[in-house]
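Loading example: each entry is read as two labelled lines plus one structure line.
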Amino acid sequence: MANLQEGGSGEHIWSRRNLLSITGWLAILGALQAGGIAMVALLFPRVLFEPPTSFKAGQPTDFTVGEVSEKFMRSQRVWIVREETGFYALLGICTHLGCTPRWLGPENKFKCPCHGSGFRKDGTNFEGPAPRPLERIKIARADDGQVLIDKAVVFRKELSEWGKPGSYLKFSASGAA
Amino acid sequence: MPDPQKPTEPSALDKIFTSTVWRSIFRHGYADTPRNRVLQVSANVWLHLHPSKIRRHGIRYRHTWCAGGLTFLLYLVTVVTGVILMFYYRPTQEYAYFDIKYLDFDVPFGMLMRNMHRWAAHGMVIFIWLHMFRVFMTGSYKPPREFNWVIGVTLLVLTLLMSFTGYLLPWDQLAIWAVTVGTNMARATPLIGHQGPFGPELGVTPRYDMRALLLGGTIVGPPALMRFYVLHCIFIPIIVSILMILHFWRIRKDGGISGPL
């Protein structure tokens, strides 16, 4: 590209030819970069047509104390656990590689069929390759009193998020929320 | 033999070969000269995957196992059968699974084409490993062939990616869970995965990260099927084909198949 005869006089840093050449190449690189950015942006649509992340799970009194409810497992991949003092909801996605664990009632644990990860009833991992506890998701009361679950808001135990508001729904059978 | 002096009527074939239509398609006939015969051989890429001179061991089956050549043959099988499958398969949530059933049970030779595609793909992966093992054991990765080894490893990875993207297309439980597991690994990609090193620190979210790029969303759904289909049928095969050409060309340029140690 460089033209030594024109640029060799020392009066100018770049010859006219070199300047035009560099400008041209910069323009080409810029266009390629813009095209690359556009291509990446194109792969992230503004709107996703995916199922809604929140759902109503019925009245709190529908659940039995001490039970892991699998009522919404098939449709929503969510377990709702009723304790003496309230509720928490666990996401049925193994923290190892995303399979669906199963609730084994007699053994009082969640067990993943893919690679054998095991989780206790509160979601804490204790066996197999899963590196962290199951994720809890937002649980609250809707205006009509139903239990409202939002899978988009997760609470992770290893980040000390299980105590945060929304991770646990206080409720006692006497009716006081 | 007809008398050469006597002008003969042009035969029906001659009339065709001298017609305007024929001449517009084939400008001139093939001159069977020694030069053209040599050119036919020397300009033919298939006859020149090997150089014009080859050492004795290069064609000995036990030296190469023909593993690289068989990998290429199986690739051609997957390309041909894959294109045939594309006549019936629609990569959408509604149709994908049933088109596979249709191919298996209602299309003549559909099951054969599908199984050929599948077994050729399996065979391709197996023969790549054998090829790699042979190249390693004969020391054929050493200079001046080190760059061809790099191209070969790239081809191995791309072949595995073709297998992985093809795995989703039947859209059955096996496919969905395999791809769920596979793409969940992309969550942990450094910098561009929302659970990878420095990912959350850079503000990468599940909605905009490497996994969402692969899946076209946050779940293994219809957009993922379409993306994997395009990657499987267009994107990766084109790159693989280009790299294969480079791979074969480099064998010649690097001095042919390496000798026994």
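The interface with chain A takes residues 177, 180-181, 184-185, 207-208, 212-213, 216-219, 221, 223 of chain B (CB under 8 Å).
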